[in-house]
Amino acid sequence: NITVILANVAAIKKDPAWAPDGESLLFTMNSPDKDKFEVYFVKRDGTCLIPLTRDFPSAENPVVAPAGDTFLFVSNRTGKRHIFIKPFPKKPECPPAPPPAVEPASAAPEP
To answer: What are phi and psi of 54, to 5 degrees?
Structure first.
């Protein structure tokens, strides 16, 4: 079965990276500023969407450490692209659930 995560969020989403627990992931999204990407946390069912890098001008390519305690990402915060490290949210404070965020992708072609 193929499902779409965050189908109801109108933004470019890219660079997904699974957390070691297999229940959550990080990815980058350019909403609300179309030219600025941020790293977001989300549970695999599309709930608990949380921005993790709002204090950076742009952040992309997240990778979670194997231990699940930190994540790396690339940012131009200093005017040059560098790799940064931040704590990975162990028990994030999830915002109230939005409308259903996962829906079947019946029109999606099989790989």
So the answer is: -65, -20
State the DSSP code for 94: P
Task: For residue 72, give every residue at least 6 positions away whose Cβ sits within 8 Å of its Cβ, in sequence order, or none.
Answer: 62, 63, 65, 83, 84, 85
Contact in structure between 35 and 28 (CB atoms under 8 Å): no
Interatomic CA distance for residues 107 and 84, integer angstroms: 38
> Tokens 């742009």 belong to which residue?
58
Strand partners, 60: 74
Q: What is the mean pLDDT of residues 15-42?
A: 87
Residues 58-77: tens digit of each pLDDT: 899 999 999 999 999 999 88
pTM listed for this prediction: 0.78
> 3-5 and 59-64: which strand pairing?
unpaired
Check if the beta carbon of residue 48 is closer than 8 Å to that of residue 94: yes
3-state class (DSSP) for residue 55: coil
Report how far Cα 64 is from the mean position of its chain's Cα atoms. 11
